[in-house]
Amino acid sequence: MEPFKNKVVYQIYPKSFLDTNGDGIGDLQGVIRKLDYLEELGVDYIWLTPFFPSPQRDNGYDVANYRGVDPSYGTMKDFEELVAEAGKRNIRVMLDMVFNHTSTQHTWFQRALAGEEAYQDYYIFRTPRPDGGPPTNWCSKFGGSAWEYVPQLGRYYLHLFDKTQADLNWENPAVRRELAEIVRFWMSKGVKGFRFDVVNLISKGEYLDDPQGDGRQFYTDGPRVHEFLKELNRQSFGRDKEIITVGEMSSTSMEHCFSYAGEGQEELSMVFSFHHLKVDFAGNNKWVLIPPDFERLKNILFSWQEGMASHGAWNAVFWCNHDQPRVVSRFGDEGVYWKQSAKMLATVIHGLRGTPYIYQGEELGMTNAHFTRLDQYRDVESINHFALLRDRGMSEEGASSILRAHSRDNSRTPMQWDEGENGGFTQGKPWLSVNPNTAVINAASQTKDPDSVFFHYQALIRLRKQWDVFALGDFTPIDPAHPAVLAYKRAWQGEEMLCVNNFFRRPCLWNCPRSLEGFQVLLSNYPDSHPTQEWKLRPYESVLLHRG
Ligand code: GLC
Ligand code: CA
User: Fold this and answer.
1) Taking CA 216 as the corner, what is the angle to CA 349 and CA 244, rounded to the nearest 5 degrees?
2) 335 located within any domain
3) What's the pLDDT at 106?
4) Coil, strand or helix: which one is 514?
5) Ligand 1 centroid distance, CA of 381 (Å)
6) Any atom of ligand 1 within 6 Å of the Cβ of 320
7) Is 419 a catalytic residue?
8) Structurally, how many domains does the chain consist of?
9) What is residue 110's predicted lDDT score, i.e. its pLDDT?
10) Last residue of a domain, which of 146, 166, 186?
11) Catalytic hit among 19, 62, 70, 248
């Protein structure tokens, strides 16, 4: 079995995990302190979002130095201690490599600005149009033009994200060599996993105006992206077969993912794709609210399951990360069925074919932030888009309600360790407000309650280790057109697993089209689930059945 198939990854956003020195910002010592908690949960890897030196315009996704630790998170010694302490608990460390762009504070960019041509060629500088305007009409994903003018150079540089995040020029072999060396540097520190940020945007193709809108057709899954990944693989992580890698693929296509994460392709172990998390967007637009479309959600999940499997390619499976709202608020219920729906959503993901990722706090059923004031937000994307919505004439209340549902800060509020004022996250003033529901949703109470969401996640992780069908089984949808039930089968060498879920608050009657003979309940979110052919599923009821 490949090293990643029966593993579970836990994502840590260090800034919001645990603060040990009272400055209101989580730190690496905070992660070390909670390793016992993570061991109890049972995860195999921790993925740490960027802790490298950074001006923090985009919370560390604007890297100023790829080989250090930002002083707000600690020191390199802390990092080494973290790798060693995690290792003692059989937990490996995965780092987040932001290689599509650097901070404009990075010395490479600073030297480019100072006039060094060799470093100008590390980035994408272009001359203005005859009228002085930006070279193309491409848009930044954080709002506004994707080009920023540098008066002293008389040229624009490309930034697909914030203007302080300048895109690197992967066409330049010197850039590719530098990046491979950075990966090797972290390998030498015992790092055993890498997540590559928006890595399907690294090959830009042609610089032309986009008649369809924002420019993404020119740089998404670009012409040389597979070649670049194969080279990076050969030059760095591919040299250690224990290492697992995951690429974050923005607006990708499944065909490209067959190659990014296909067996024998020598690119990456697996991919994150996001189509299933756009079912409450109007098209690609996150800043228009529509209710989640369950049928689309199911179609997308199932077609990726079947498509990737038929090409021997591997998915990362997930609902949550630091860019997504909290799933229980999004597709579940924050009210009476909070616990049932959080467990149901967990079961859906952990039963799929792929490697499950848990985002900090998801294992407690943490909810959206419900900020009441604009000044509570910190996220650059949220703040920029709020201003754009207001410029387009939307009312303050309208724009606020969109942020309340879709802002990335929903997932970034501090971990809720206990019922205390700041949820046990800090003795100081947290950099982002703690959700007041820490009084009821917190780790301290859940690790004492066998019926908690926490122990449901623990059980799901344990089942993956116990039964090979979770890691290796085929995937087949069951009754895919049903309007309320999400059900599927996994099968592996005579072993079978059924995962059956009522995705809604309304009870529903379901005629199970498969014989249930010989199946036993492995896990459920009700104490007394009795599957029958004619099955009355209770609100958010979720059952894993096993035979063989
Ligand atoms: C990825 C990260 C996100 C960041 C962006 C730019 O999407 O997950 O947090 O803002 O890349 O680096
Ligand atoms: Ca701190």
Assistant:
1) 40
2) no
3) 98
4) coil
5) 10
6) no
7) no
8) 3
9) 98
10) 166
11) 248
